Amino acid sequence: VLENQDLPDSIKPQKVEFHSLNFNTTLHWQPGWAREAREALYFVQYKVYGQSLWQNKDECWGISSHVCDLTHETSDIQEPYYSRVRAALAGVYSNWSLSCRFIPWRETVIGPPMVTVVHSNKSVTVKLQAPRSPYKRKRGSKIPMTNYYDLLYQVFIINNLLDEQHRVLVYEGKDKVIKIQDLRPGVSYCIVAKMYMPVLDHSSAYSSRQCTLL
């Protein structure tokens, strides 16, 4: 068993990091190096950069999990935030472990669009829906990520007769419904799409493929 003076260091949380997808933001950390650290409880605080007072996150106060949801606390997406975590075990508290600075608008990862494909004999109509943020309009619908950024849809077609990995960009822009014409009947085509953000030169991952046989 560890000497009690070593315990605070050995249970101190490691690698405190924000993870964020479409402004759904969670804080993650790893337990300290001691074997006993698996039994520790964790306490999370957060603040906006420049504030002197740390706020407790009540739902993450004395938890055994290594994840804390801070979506609501980081909803002012242009602000820089910090968070910190400490561990407690057998009445002994570690020092706080600090995250890096986190600015949601700069650092959230944009997810791919939803893609629906409808085909006729020589064309494919692609319907696109931007990913949604967790934040809601007054009527209750979730606000799309296109409200926060100047985003473009990029649509790619994969002709399954050719190389599977060969994606051809057939559209880039803001239209939510596009038509791809002059395709060959009897051929299977797959569509994938991405969100592209020119201002930060970021792309989302590809959407799942939607395939159709003309």
From TrEMBL:
Principal subcellular localization: secreted
UniProt keyword annotations, A-Z: Disulfide bond, Receptor, Repeat, Secreted, Signal
InterPro entries for this protein: FN3_dom (IPR003961), FN3_sf (IPR036116), Ig-like_fold (IPR013783), Interferon/interleukin_rcp_dom (IPR015373), Type-II_Cytokine-TF_Rcpt (IPR050650)
Listed GO MF terms: cytokine receptor activity
Domain Fibronectin type-III: 5-96
Domain Interferon/interleukin receptor: 108-212
Location in or out of the cell: Secreted
Gene3D superfamilies: Immunoglobulins
A GO cellular component entry from the record: plasma membrane
Coiled coil: none
Function text: Receptor for IL22. Binds to IL22, prevents interaction with the functional IL-22R complex and blocks the activity of IL22 (in vitro). May play an important role as an IL22 antagonist in the regulation of inflammatory responses.
Stated family: Belongs to the type II cytokine receptor family.
Name of protein: Interleukin-22 receptor subunit alpha-2
Species for this entry: Panurus biarmicus (Bearded tit)
Gene responsible for this protein: Il22ra2
